[in-house]
Sequence to fold (117 residues):
Amino acid sequence: MKPVIMTHKEWDTIFNIIKKEYAHKPSIAIISWKRREKLGFHVREHSQWVENKDFQAELFKYESRIAQPGINDLFNLAPTKGNTEHVICLDFYDEAKRTMFLLKYGEHIKSEHKWNR
Fold:
């Protein structure tokens, strides 16, 4: 089943809402197996590779500036092929609970990862 992927800030917002909703039973928000039982998901931190789509253009620009005399400190500005991005993944075990989660908290997820994978 597809995980729901979000930033740490988005997860903090949703986690605070869940804590308020289940204030009468705080263990649901805090204990992972109770959260899985009641809300249907497991929280996982993940680092994913995000490719730099403009790498070739940035590399060409960088190399043309290096060829100019008098520029010595450009080695610190070299473009990279990509970076790692740290995200929160919610792994669901029930499609109905995943759908309910997205209906209930989807407005708090602004990232482009919301519906992917």
